[in-house]
Every structure is written in structure tokens, then in C-alpha cells.
Amino acid sequence: MPEFENSERVVFVTGASGNLGQAIVEAFNAAGCRLIAVDNKKGIMPHLYPGLAASKDAYLAEGVDVTDPEQVQKLVRESMDRFGRIDILVNTVGGYRAGTPVHETDLETWDYMMNLNARSAFIVSKAVIPHMLSQGGGRIINIASSAALKGSANSAAYSAAKSAVARLTESMSAEYKRQGITVNAIVPGTIDTPENREAMPSADYNFWVYPQALARVILFLASEDASPISGALLPVYGKK
């Protein structure tokens, strides 16, 4: 397990009820970190994380729309009141919608992809960064995609949104790395989830990457071992 400077770092994870979000929360919990697990759903996280529901070292924040700056600012204030700091931010919220060429893609799909993938990371980072600056540093890890690196047919909205996440990552790194905040992104290929298996039943799952493997890479990027790394778009494609 990567080395942390202490065992009680405070980790803020969005999208905590998703497949990747769950793997990330579980990995940081096993590393002894304190957790702020954020999700827009209500009533689900106490069942996902029964061991954290009553813990003083965890805050399960449900019903939070991370594309709404007022809700995010309120949550960050509550988190600071509770823990006094936020050391690590993992912007896990995101999603996929594709299948049509640009002239058949409705504006709602474009806006949904941009808001869910890019606006969410921007708003949460914007709210957390001032606290990281005041405490002298932090780690931010975003979730990009191989689609961020090259556009392909019938997925323009998703590809553009993930490209925005990649450019946001690079820009924030350039802005804050000299102030002790590293900003990196992982670039997954196809993640091995029940939903992806259902959507692609004829695919060879042996070449996909498990959420738990991605979580271990994120744990590394959040660790002291990764302190020299910032602005990286780290490919995590599995055996692709």
C-alpha cells in the first residue's frame, strides 16, 4: 500500500455510490483515511457503507448535486467544520452517453455530458482548492477517459466532455503545483462493471480494467510516493 504522511488524511470522494466510487472509498478507508463520501442519491450509502454510517471519521453526504455550486459550497463548509481540512479530492462523478453523429445529437445530451463530467469537476475543485491552499497543499485526482485523447464517431459529446476534464487537470496543475497541490487524472479504458457487461455482452472482459485496480492507482496518486507527479494523464487500460 502506498505511503501516506499520516493515517488520518481527509479524502473527499464524489460519485461514491457508483462502481468506481465504491472501490475508491473502500481503498481509502482501508488505508486509514477519514472520508467524505458524496452522492446525489438518497438512502443508499448507509447500506453500501454500514461500517462508515456511524463513524466519526466518515461523513456520508447524500442528495448532493455536484453540478450546483451552492450545494457544493455548503457541503465543503460542513466538511471543514467537521474535519478541519480536506487533503485529497477525487472527482469520480461522470457518465457516458453516445451513439449518434453530431447532427443527430440533441443539445440535452451535449449539456448533460458537459455538466456531469466537466462542470462537476470544475465546481468541486473550485470549492475545495482555497482550503488546500490555506493548509499548504493537497491532492486532486480526476477521472478522464481514453476518449479524451482522441475523438471517435458517434461520441462527440462524451469525448469533448472528457477532453475538458483532461485540459482542466493540466491547467490546475500548472496553476497550483508550486503551491503544494498536485493535480492528476487517470485515463481508463473500458471499466469492468455489471452495467458495461450488460451493454456489451459479446466483449472480451479479460481486457477490461477492474474498478479496484483503478482505485489502487488513485491511492498511489494521492500518496507521498507520488508527490513529484502533477499534470499527468495516466493511462490505466488494463490488458487492452
Report what the structure shows.
This protein has about 240 residues and is of the alpha/beta class. It has a single domain (about 10-235), classed as NAD(P)-binding Rossmann-like Domain (Rossmann fold, 3-Layer(aba) Sandwich). The protein has eight helices and seven strands. A seven-stranded parallel sheet has the order 3-2-1-4-5-6-7, with helices on both faces. About 40% of the residues are buried. The mean pLDDT is about 90.
Attribute tags:
single chain, 240 residues, alpha/beta, Rossmann fold, seven-stranded parallel beta sheet, globular
Number of helices: 8
The low-pLDDT segments are: none
Arrangement of strands in the largest sheet = 3-2-1-4-5-6-7
Shape descriptor: globular
Task: List the SSEs and their pairings.
Elements: E1 10-13, H1 19-30, E2 34-38, H2 45-48, H3 50-53, E3 58-61, H4 69-83, E4 88-91, H5 107-135, E5 138-143, H6 156-176, E6 181-188, H7 194-199, H8 211-221, E7 233-236
Parallel strand pairs: 1-2, 1-4, 2-3, 4-5, 5-6, 6-7
